[in-house]
Each structure stands twice: as structure tokens, then as C-alpha cells.
């Protein structure tokens, strides 16, 4: 399907498959970055549940984008490479939504910020590396590409 049509909204939002992939990569990549800032197997499980809960709380177009289709493919080489992909994708996501579904921008920002914060708090509270990454994510969401 080349376009997504949100029929329950007064304004029909049309997102291309590339738009949807960008939004989803940014979202899942953001929680990966926070989780990876303080790695650990037990922490990872708790953080996965935290991220899933935050994404499940989303509504409308944001929920649809995050809960349908395949999971995004993130680089495997290094966390730095993931960061170089994800932070610009967050900015592009805000720009995409600002153009095509402006009524969804705050929902997207709140969902991603909430997920990042929930992941950071999931294991043993927020440590400095996680706080730094959450700050980078919030900054990227505040400055669209």
C-alpha cells in the first residue's frame, strides 16, 4: 500500500511507506538508544516492556504507524551508527507530521518522549547516560528537519 489514509480524522493524512518507515525507525530507534545507554540483560527485558506499554498507549495515526507492519531494521555495527540514523529520523518524523498530519505532531512527540523516559526508569531509575540520551531525543523532537 503506497499511502495510509486516516479515515477517522477530519483531515485525511497521507503517509507514504517511506514516511511510515521513518516514523517507526525513529520511535523504535529512540527506545533502543536509551536502553543501550545502560546495557544489561535483565534491564533490557524490563525496558522492552516499558517501551511496549508506552507505544500501546498511543492513539490515532501514531498508534497505527507504531503497531503495524514489520519492525524497523537498525544498524548492528555500533550504537553510534544507530544514533546517527535515529536522531535525524526523529527530526524528519516531526517534519513529515507537521506537513501531512499536524494534529498528530504532539501525540508523536509525547509518545516517543514518554517511551524514552519509561525505558530509562524501567530498571533501577535513570542513570546519567540514559538521561543524556533522553535529552538528545527530546532535542531532536523539538527541532524538525
Alpha carbon gyration radius: 15 Å
Taking the sheet with the most strands, its summary is: 2 strands, antiparallel
Estimate the helix proportion, in percent.
Answer: 55-70%
The separation of the N and C termini measures 26 Å
Number of domains: 1
Shape: globular
Catalogue the unreliable spans: 1-12
Structural class: mainly alpha
Would you write up a description of this structure?
With 145 residues, the protein is mainly α. The protein has one domain (18-68, 78-142). It contains six helices and two strands. It has helices at residues 17-37, 41-56, 60-67, 79-100, 105-122, 128-142; strands at residues 3-5, 14-16. A two-stranded antiparallel sheet has the order 1-2. Strand 1 and strand 2 (14-16) form a beta hairpin.
Report a brief summary of the structure.
It is built from six helices and two strands; from the N terminus they run ββαααααα.
Q: What labels would you give this structure?
A:
145 residues, mainly alpha, 6 helices, 69% helix, globular
Topology:
Layout: E1 3-5, E2 14-16, H1 17-37, H2 41-56, H3 60-67, H4 79-100, H5 105-122, H6 128-142
Antiparallel strand pairs: 1-2
Amino acid at each position: 500500500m503506497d499511502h495510509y489514509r486516516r479515515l477517522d480524522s477530519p483531515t485525511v493524512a497521507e503517509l507514504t511507506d517511506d514516511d511510515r518507515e521513518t516514523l517507526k525507525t525513529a520511535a523504535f530507534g529512540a527506545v533502543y538508544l536509551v536502553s543501550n545507554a545502560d546495557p544489561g540483560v535483565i534491564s533490557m527485558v524490563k525496558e522492552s516492556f516499558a517501551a511496549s506499554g508506552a507505544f500501546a498507549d498511543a492513539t490515532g495515526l501514531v498508534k497505527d504507524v507504531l503497531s503495524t507492519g514489520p519492525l524497523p531494521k537498525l544498524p548492528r555495527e555500533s550504537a553510534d551508527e544507530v544514533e546517527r540514523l535515529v536522531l535525524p529520523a526523529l527530526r524528519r518524523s516531526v517534519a513529515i507530521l507537521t506537513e501531512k498530519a499536524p494534529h498528530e505532531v504532539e501525540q508523536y512527540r509525547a509518545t516517543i518522549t514518554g517511551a524514552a523516559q519509561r525505558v530509562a526508569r524501567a530498571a533501577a531509575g535513570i542513570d546519567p547516560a540514559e538521561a543524556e540520551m533522553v535529552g538528545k531525543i527530546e532535542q531532536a523532537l523539538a527541532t524538525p528537519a
